[in-house]
């Protein structure tokens, strides 16, 4: 049986670490669809999992990588046949089921999405979970009435993968996008993606958050949580919508009900991990169409599979920006 290369995350002596190993098909997890992986991507969650900096992995050992795209080589499900180009993200991939940091993967058919016409496998991973999450947040806000004419939309954690893609998508749809970041040096990068304004997080006074402050935002994509999300809620316009996507700053939320009962603000949870069909496929189709970010190539960096471990430190240290695609098939 042919072996393949994989980045395996293991636990020993109370410590979590990862490294390249050789595996064979018999070691793959259960599932109806076997895929030869072409590309994966690097997300903050992947870096936390592989380094043990966060309690992400729910089963050891586990091949990392929450995203993968490639070609079907075997399928026990009629929806997929050998040769199909597919995407698999989210669910338990890379955290409790062997993931995309391997030259071969096997996953349940319900976790697999056909590659939409108009996207390449590389572009699908340039988008990855980050792009899917950003798009889902925009879809949820627009379902709740958000339109470009209603006012500005603020995006927090704007230089990260989700943030960068959200800025790009919103701007090309005609929104006045305000990018909130702690990285002053990246202001030109954010303006290049379409941000009309760049705000520095360090200029916010989060020690005195009012229950209701001056309304400023028709929409918000929040990747941070904590006090920043509380401040956003207090500064939303009447009928505004917040897509709560991440917790890079804090899982806690100390706020009041005032924005929700006096201004009709909607706090929308964005669960990109377990949302199922037909919603999942529909969002991917929109990512190949009207939500396709025009600056995707400019914000994406390709790395060799062998260089993957060295990249995790960038994410843990807060130095990463945009998207990183792992060329798994290229070695």
Which features does this protein show?
331 residues; alpha/beta; seven-stranded mixed beta sheet; six-stranded parallel beta sheet; 8 helices; 16 strands; 24% helix; globular
Q: What's the structural blueprint in terms of helices and strands?
A:
Layout: E1 3-12, E2 15-24, E3 33-42, H1 44-51, E4 62-63, E5 67-75, E6 85-89, E7 104-107, E8 112-114, H2 121-143, E9 153-156, H3 161-172, E10 177-181, H4 187-192, E11 197-200, E12 217-222, H5 226-234, E13 236-244, H6 258-262, E14 266-269, H7 279-287, E15 300-304, H8 308-316, E16 323-327
Parallel strand pairs: 9-10, 9-12, 10-11, 12-13, 13-14, 15-16
Antiparallel strand pairs: 1-2, 1-4, 3-5, 3-7, 3-16, 5-6, 6-8
Structural class determined from secondary elements: alpha/beta
Distance between the termini: 19 Å
Mean pLDDT: 96
Low-confidence stretches: none
Strand content: 25-35%
The helix/strand series, from N terminus to C terminus, equals: EEEHEEEEEHEHEHEEHEHEHEHE
Rounded to an integer in angstroms, the radius of gyration calculated over CA atoms is: 20 Å
| Number of β-strand runs | 16
Shape: globular
Helix fraction?
A: 10-25%
Number of helices: 8
* Oligomeric description of these chains: single chain
Major sheet = 7 strands, mixed
3D structure, described in words:
This protein is α/β, with parallel strands linked by helices. The chain is 24% helix and 29% strand. Strands 3, 5, 6, 7, 8, 15 and 16 form a seven-stranded mixed sheet that branches. Helix 3 links the parallel strand 9 (153-156) and strand 10 (177-181). Helix 2 packs across helix 3. The longest helix has 23 residues, at 121-143. It is globular and about 65 Å long. The mean pLDDT is 96.
């Amino acid at each position: 049986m042919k072996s393949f290369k994989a980045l395996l995350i293991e636990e020993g002596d109370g410590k979590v670490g990862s490294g390249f190993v050789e595996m064979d098909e018999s070691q793959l997890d259960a599932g109806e669809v076997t895929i030869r992986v072409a590309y994966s991507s690097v997300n903050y969650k992947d870096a936390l999992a592989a380094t043990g900096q966060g309690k992400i992995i729910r089963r050891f050992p586990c091949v990392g990588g929450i995203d993968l795209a490639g070609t079907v080589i075997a399928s026990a499900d009629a929806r997929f046949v050998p040769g199909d180009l597919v995407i698999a993200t989210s669910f338990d991939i890379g955290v409790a089921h062997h993931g995309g940091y391997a030259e071969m993967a096997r996953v349940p058919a319900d976790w697999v999405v056909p590659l939409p016409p108009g996207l390449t496998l590389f572009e699908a991973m340039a988008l990855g979970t980050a792009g899917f999450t950003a798009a889902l947040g925009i879809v949820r806000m627009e379902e709740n009435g958000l339109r470009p004419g209603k006012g500005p939309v603020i995006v927090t954690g704007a230089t990260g993968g989700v943030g960068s893609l959200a800025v790009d998508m919103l701007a090309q749809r005609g929104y006045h996008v305000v990018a909130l970041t702690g990285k002053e040096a990246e202001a030109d990068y954010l303006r290049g993606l379409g941000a009309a304004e760049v705000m520095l997080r360090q200029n916010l006074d989060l020690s005195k958050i009012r229950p209701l402050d001056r309304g400023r935002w028709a929409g918000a994509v929040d990747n941070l949580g904590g006090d920043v999300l509380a401040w956003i809620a207090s500064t939303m316009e009447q009928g505004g919508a917040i897509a709560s996507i991440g917790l890079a700053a804090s899982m806690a939320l100390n706020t009041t009900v005032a924005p929700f009962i006096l201004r009709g603000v909607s706090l929308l949870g964005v669960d990109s991990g377990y949302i199922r069909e037909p919603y999942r496929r529909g969002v991917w189709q929109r990512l190949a169409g009207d939500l396709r970010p025009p600056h995707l190539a400019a914000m994406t960096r390709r790395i060799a599979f062998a260089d993957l471990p060295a990249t995790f430190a960038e994410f843990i240290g807060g130095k990463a920006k945009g998207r990183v695609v792992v060329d798994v098939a290229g070695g």
